[in-house]
Amino acid sequence: MAPHPFKTLNIEETRIARDVVLAQHPDVVVDFREIFLQEPEKEGMKLFLDLEHSSKPGQSPTSKRPSRLAKCQYDIIGSDKIPEYHESIVDIGLKKRVRHEVIGKEHQASLTLWEFEILVEACKRSDEFQKAIAEFKLPEGFELVVEPWPYGGLDLGSENRRYFQGLCFAQDTRSGNPDSNFYAYPLPLIPILDAHKKEIIRIDRLATGGKGDSLTGKTHSEHIVDHCQSAEYVPELLPGGTRKDLKPINITQPEGPSFKVTDESLVEWQKWRFRVSFNPREGAVLHDVHYDGRSILYRLSISEMTVPYGDPRPPFHRKQAFDFGDGGAGNCANNLSLGCDCLGVIKYFDAVIVGSDGEPKVHPNVVCLHEQDNGIGWKHTNWRTGRAVVSRMRELVVQFIITLANYEYVFAYKLDTAGGITIEVRATGIVSVVNIDPGKTSDYGNVVSGGVLAQNHQHIFATRIDPAIDGHNNTVLHEESHSAPWDKVTNPNGNFYEIRKTVVNRSSGHDAAPEHNRTFKIINPNKRNPLSGNPVGYKFVPPPTQKLLAAPGSIQAQRALFTNHHVWVTKYRDDELYAAGRFTLQSQLEVGGVHDMVKRNEEVTNEDLVIWNTFGLTHNPRVEDWPVMPSEIFQVHFKPSDFFNANPAIDVPSTKNEASVLVGKECCLEKL
Amino acid sequence: MAPHPFKTLNIEETRIARDVVLAQHPDVVVDFREIFLQEPEKEGMKLFLDLEHSSKPGQSPTSKRPSRLAKCQYDIIGSDKIPEYHESIVDIGLKKRVRHEVIGKEHQASLTLWEFEILVEACKRSDEFQKAIAEFKLPEGFELVVEPWPYGGLDLGSENRRYFQGLCFAQDTRSGNPDSNFYAYPLPLIPILDAHKKEIIRIDRLATGGKGDSLTGKTHSEHIVDHCQSAEYVPELLPGGTRKDLKPINITQPEGPSFKVTDESLVEWQKWRFRVSFNPREGAVLHDVHYDGRSILYRLSISEMTVPYGDPRPPFHRKQAFDFGDGGAGNCANNLSLGCDCLGVIKYFDAVIVGSDGEPKVHPNVVCLHEQDNGIGWKHTNWRTGRAVVSRMRELVVQFIITLANYEYVFAYKLDTAGGITIEVRATGIVSVVNIDPGKTSDYGNVVSGGVLAQNHQHIFATRIDPAIDGHNNTVLHEESHSAPWDKVTNPNGNFYEIRKTVVNRSSGHDAAPEHNRTFKIINPNKRNPLSGNPVGYKFVPPPTQKLLAAPGSIQAQRALFTNHHVWVTKYRDDELYAAGRFTLQSQLEVGGVHDMVKRNEEVTNEDLVIWNTFGLTHNPRVEDWPVMPSEIFQVHFKPSDFFNANPAIDVPSTKNEASVLVGKECCLEKL
Fold first, then answer.
1. d(Cα A387, Cα A393) in Å, to the nearest integer?
2. Residues in chain B closer than 8 A to A342 (CB atoms)
3. Prediction pTM value
4. Are B319 and B455 within 8 A, CB to CB?
5. Is the confidence metric ipTM above 0.90 for this complex?
6. CB contact under 8 A, B549 and A419
7. What is the pLDDT of residues B119-146, one digit of tens each?
8. Strands B294-308 and B283-291, bridge-based pairing
9. What domains can be seen in chain A, in order of their start residue?
10. Angle CA B199–B161–B101, to nearest 5
11. Among B314, B130, B139, which residue's Cα sits nearest to residue B218?
12. Which listed residue (A291, A407, A409, A538) is catalytic?
């Protein structure tokens, strides 16, 4: 029997897809970028899921099973040596290509990590670049490091060739430690690669001035890193070593985990049931999320993020990453290692990636699953009897972590015993820095170490929530609380406040409004809670974070139109997964993103709809963000709102944990 | 040697204070309300702390030691039997009263829990009340429960006598379980007690109607709880019992805790050093908070909270609690029990309370202290070498929990390894409900169970932050990020954004502005970070939560003027600890709260200043909040901002935790 329709493609399936593509392109070079699951069309999948959920455990419906499809992304390199980018869909069962698209030159395929190697090699070969580097007098023992980056937004009027840029640093190799932190020694030049020609076509020289200096003035001396300071983070290079007085906290689960994973994708835990998949662009995705046999979500994913920099000095306006669309969050996922990235009993999930020859291999441990305690879940003490009943909040965490050159993001979906789902993002890693002349400060960032300017920037994320609240026909509304006018009849003491509900009738963008406690509800208008009489639903309060600051109409803003609103509601269409559109690399304008989707002005009440939530962080670095920044944590909470008939966690036992101990008067441990 | 000046009064000291007071009032009855530490005046304390911090460990300065003072709050009951409320300050060392104040009749002393007993007793004795109750036909086995509440804001023009109100419920006693949840059976009447006369002086009848019904219509039948439903939460009464598949998570610290507590008040942990005290009004307070020998805060406390209800039907406008000012959060603190309220290695702190005779006794385990893991603290993977360095975030939690009739709040101060301080509040417990006629719904709340209307309400908290950023002279400013106009010279690509700083020059109130990423910084203008050149400081982003909704000028609004702004900056004065003023019980107007303090329009730059942060929750209940609501969690984060010269957690070891285990393919546990 074929794998479950939501399951990540396995190695065998991936090979079949590759072979079908190769057979279609016999006389050319095929350079593969990605092969991954093309998820089934929803209409067919609904029938399958209906059958699946009504089947007996262990049984799986076969009559309505959608075909296993692979999305294949590859370059065809013909005689002119200029790659042409193709996307095909292959039916694995039929071993047949069922869709084929040649992508126009106006778009660029997502980058692959091996393209980064081309930049590094081209720098080595480029006389111009080597000459530019030689202008600097690096101290003895310092060596050049080139850090490849996407090119950012293409300037208007420039030809859309495939470019990459390199940020340059010097690494102190005297310790012999390859993890010595080279970001502490930035060099003020950026080589630009034409990826098709595999040549450095230009070197951008960077300003290193401070307040009052012109945007283009090159004020630095040839002793470019002499005013920089070492900024190590690997423990063996820390001047003072690591602290010694942090004693271990061990998290053990002597009876094993409360979750069960079967079929390497189906997770069951505390009445929750869902599937996990993983793809190169979005990383971990949750599918078909149920609680106690009732449907809540069809699909949940992190869709996109953009990181624009606010330094106006050219070419820093091209520092703007789209870390999902440009290179793929899944591609950049860390191989998580036990005991550091999570504690407790941990289940890992693998993914499959392909090389440029299309040969698949396992990408191990890219997703981890574990339970954790999150403090008091609910408590009540009857003050008459003194009886306290306290039950803890347990969470199940599905986590993946990506590294994008200097930065890392920790993404987690947390499901809890009270029926809640939290999307959490932690931003950590090393802030992006440039060289600044000795003694100067800047309006464009903060000097976090000698000679090192951490530029002001933003991180704006988009999550995609495809709800299925007791079925696929849902409605979104927002609810606000408003002061009511004093009125002898209706509000004689002035304490009344009114709840106003506004239904989102057509696909559109909406904003957070914390001053009105604006809360978005995703309801099923066809089903009412028997107690309250309200439609069953889930709610969330969009974090009212600052939107994109780049001036309207600027390329930074135009390519990130998804940041214009905190909440978007669109009508569901197959394949519309990406908030900023399919193609973000070098884009000048968001095409096919949520901004375009809402333009269709579709009816979205009692329909199959999708909610997109954007939130972010304006990050003006502080010295404490150096050399590796402490996690900045964001959370969006989805909570049942008249979906259940009581607190779903009311049956969570209030058992006393016997492993906890007391510190006595003398600071010794006493077992109670 | 006398105890440390910040230490909670011990039993012996409390007795001395009581005896001094009794000696001052020889021929009358003295009913004590509270005896607790009167903290030293700051000017003297600064000298002491300077000496203390420059002393060798174990030594403590004696030359500058401030006197130990007790604040004594008591009623004097003379021949007219009408109590007169007094406050005295007693010098414990001198055994002498040093200050004495008779509080005017315009104010009411905070309530004591034994006053609640008077209400219950008076109800039993009141014929009128018994007759009113008898009008209802309660089912066999149901018994009356009277839940005493503060009276709320006094109506204008009414005489300021000392009142309490009782919310009435019926308890199903058929199970014989005294913890059967009586809140599920609300009765529509409220007896009003004159606490001095000890008599029920009035019975307010409650409307039970729904949408379209008048505010005063009494539409209910005599079978008042027949349409209500059982809503148990104690495990033995749950119809389905508790869930069986939640396996334990044990948190163990085989090498003991990383913290050290000496002198029953001094906590040292991971470069942090502070004192904990506890008082009847604010609960746990942190004093003299240092990191790595540098001062950050002089004092940190939760100052006040108000919970106004939005149901316009009289007398519900008088449902407005001030849980710190009315009855004292410390007085309502739970005796925390091991293994439920916290996990791991736990240290408890006791407090001292007095009976009405002034006799002190230990209030055990009112504060708990423990360490916890909070996930990834920082991480960076060098993608060239594959080397991942990941260090976890460790937190030290100082927690106390209060029960206020139906509701509970969990307050925690969390200090972390990255130099951050988080104030966390969890709201849980049972929402306040009233009876609603069968089948009706309401504009004033949500029907969460048969016949039970959970009224819309707000919770608004005020924290008091008395900073000492590298000294007592500090300045507050806020920093915003703003889009900059496109400009050929200064912003040629439109990506620049500008940081605007606004110094708070005079005592004043300010609001959150998330659309501008408004961030408040508390800086020491006299000391600069050597790397960035900025003044050293701490920052926080005030949660932009909804303000009080009661109409301006209403009594609910007038007595809670502290809710008018998210952030207040005032000049420090001794004894100004309470955001809503000293006296909140039955208040009609906030007197002496932050609203009054800022009116002094004082210079607050480079001064000893105090920051007050108000935040809250508009709580329109959902069915899932019943019968005990899942914790709603709020956090305010204070983070160093150019205070340190690098990430203070960079030396936290990245040791792999050996206790974690792997779930293998067959779901068995494998030790890695």
1. 20
2. 660
3. 0.97
4. yes
5. yes
6. no
7. 999 999 999 999 999 999 999 999 999 9
8. antiparallel
9. 11-102 (3.10.450.40), 113-237 (3.10.450.40), 260-309+320-431+456-641 (2.70.98.20)
10. 125
11. B314
12. A407
